[in-house]
Specification:
By secondary structure, the protein is an all-beta fold. About 0% of the residues lie in helices and about 40% in strands. It has 1 helix and 14 strands. The protein has a 6-stranded antiparallel beta sheet with strand order 3-14-5-10-11-12, with no helix packed on it. A 6-stranded antiparallel beta sheet has the order 4-13-6-7-8-9. A two-stranded antiparallel sheet has the order 1-2. Strand 11 and strand 12 form a beta hairpin. The protein is globular, with a radius of gyration of 18 Å. The N terminus is likely disordered.
Length: about 200
Amino acid sequence: NLPFIDGNSPNGYRSQIGDVSSINKKAIVNFSGWINQCKMTPLHHSKKPPLAKSVVTKELLKETVVVVNELDLSSKTATLNGTYELQITTQQAADFELKISNSQGDEVLVGYNKINNSFYVDRTKSGIVNFEKNFAKRTIAPRIANDNKISLKLLLDATSVEVFADNGLTAITNLFFAKQPLTYLSIKTKTPLSVEKIRNLR
């Protein structure tokens, strides 16, 4: 992992850049393309901090969309520049997979495997992955809930995907370095599932 950095920013705020998971500190990585993704959080300051800017979100689904077998939702996500929230619910605990991709062939797969009763995030083909031998992999987390229905919330940003299944009982967070924003979205499922929310996070 890359080291935790704690220093003084130019405006007097103390800034913290968190640990970057799954990257060996010996790996040589050029982060110049993603450096603006780091967020500086005010911790201590003698002056009055500036007012926080409100985040404007836009709901892109006017009604729930039911997916049977397979559905391409890229028309809903194309304008979101690879940054959005997605929420789905399955009718049964059966296999499903979300494919988040771009025109360069970069892709991140998020899904559920019924045989193993587990959720996964696969970043094997997510873009720049050859800087560390263990980066291109599938992350697996067991399902804890016993409900027949599965709820899943996904938060996608420029370089990360966060998955919260069954109201957060199972959670996965992965970094990725795509060559361009992941603006395509398609879903495959063995039983009908409902897409309840797609909204931008900018």
